[in-house]
Amino acid sequence: MRVAIAGAGLAGLACAKYLADAGHIPIVVESRDVLGGLVAAWQDEQGDWYETGLHAFFGAYPNMLQLMRELGIEDRLQWKQHTLIFNQPEKPGTYSRFDVPNIPAPFNVITSIIRNNDMLTWEQKLRFAVGLLPAVVRGQKYVEAMDRYSLLEWLQRQGVDERVSSDIFIAACKALTFINPDEVSATIPLTAINRFMQERYGSKIAFLDGSPTERLCQPIVDYFTERGGEVHLNAPLKKIRLNPDGTVKHFLIRGLNGVADWELAADIYVSAMSVDVLKVLLPQSWREIDFFAKLEGLEGVPVINVHLWFDRKLTDIDHLLFSRSELLSVYADMSNTCRAYANDERSMLELVLAPAKDWIERSEAEIVEATMQELKRLFPQHFDADHPAQLLKSKVVKTPRSVYTASPGRQANRPTQATPIENFYLAGSYTLQRYLGSMEGAVLSGKLAAEAIQQAPPVANKPLAAIAS
Ligand SMILES: Cc1cc2nc3c(=O)[nH]c(=O)nc-3n(C[C@H](O)[C@H](O)[C@H](O)COP(=O)(O)OP(=O)(O)OC[C@H]3O[C@@H](n4cnc5c(N)ncnc54)[C@H](O)[C@@H]3O)c2cc1C
């Protein structure tokens, strides 16, 4: 079967890969001139890479790891020490570590918490552990049911100390969802904790050895194009045209650069676009169907990725860092963490600014200035009056609508990959799967969409060729 897929983010590409494995022909259309969607990256005039987002991979990403194994590129993940590292704003220039020993889960994570005395007192640790018990014992079903509470509400109900929330969960929530604990559904951090508690290497972090566009997305494209699939960049889906029975007749693709609009006809159609774009493109007659009407409850969250190149090394830490700052979420010195960005003399900090709703409209200069002020608080030793570190250049990438906003109650709005329309499917990290709005969630959603297509009864009498109009 020919399957038309709109969107070349990880969900659309994974869907295409697994359809090719099943003997189908995926045809991917992407609106931009770059692969990867939220993992897309570009090179500047000097050849330095900058990215839509700082991306960390976790041991608890079975579908991503399997995909990379199947493509023969698993050695592109650079695994870091098994530890989580937090800045200590109250002791500028210092870090607090949760070192996870190499013993079976969940004892490895528990040991790392017990051993850390910088951030939590014994009483706080005990109350935290008791509060978490139902999530660990009663498992994912309990975790899903907690979607009705914000994380802050849930922590209060469990009697967990406010300091645990402010010290650990603000950092974790901002890293996972780009919003704060009073806005985020309790299901999200509890799901992550559950995975980390159940898998020995679940919380172990890796960085890709180069740009996700080149080192991850391109190999997926090579895989399915070698098997007859196609990718068209600069080919935005403009309209979903329907048959009289409400099924998809074809995708109308906007012709760019002097090319006329064209029709992409296939046996099956997949939207792997973000939910915000899909909502705009939904045909009128589908909007009344409850399945699609529920998408109105989902919306992408703003986030900003800041890149700062300095004239010297600011840190030799080769890991993801949790800033615990109000402005910033996680960051990393990519000159240490990523082989293709390596530099022994100069730091390139990649920092996620979140929550970003008050910053997304501001100028790049304001964003860089605010980030620098924050760094001066975190690393005063590098910005003394005599010999301060010099910023050589910066790059800001704003994403006004990124992954879906994971506020309480949103689980009920997340759609399955199969839809009520027999020849139309959904992929995307916002669709229903257990790994939230992440790279792992995107890959799993693409795989689930491909499985749903494979399992569906054949759709009869649909046109087979892409027709230029
Ligand atoms: C700053 C930042 C940091 C992140 N950090 C992490 C992390 O550390 N770990 C992690 O696991 N995840 C992280 N994520 C989340 C992760 O990047 C996403 O969950 C994942 O990449 C989403 O993939 P997707 O395919 O579902 O959607 P998208 O990547 O949004 O893909 C949708 C695609 O559809 C295309 N499209 C849109 N409109 C059209 C149209 N009309 N026609 C055709 N194509 C169209 C888009 O251009 C895009 O390529 C981060 C995200 C950001 C923004």
UniProtKB/TrEMBL annotation:
Q: Which GO terms describe its molecular function?
A: phytoene dehydrogenase activity
List locations, semicolon-separated: Cell membrane
Q: Does the keyword Iron apply?
A: no
> Which EC numbers does the record give?
1.3.5.5
Which GO cellular component does the record give, naming just one? plasma membrane
Principal location listed in the UniProt entry: membrane
Q: Which Pfam families match?
A: Amino_oxidase (PF01593)
Similarity remark:
Belongs to the carotenoid/retinoid oxidoreductase family.
Protein name, UniProt field = Phytoene dehydrogenase
To which species is this protein native? Answer: Vasconcelosia minhoensis LEGE 07310
Q: Which gene encodes it?
A: pds
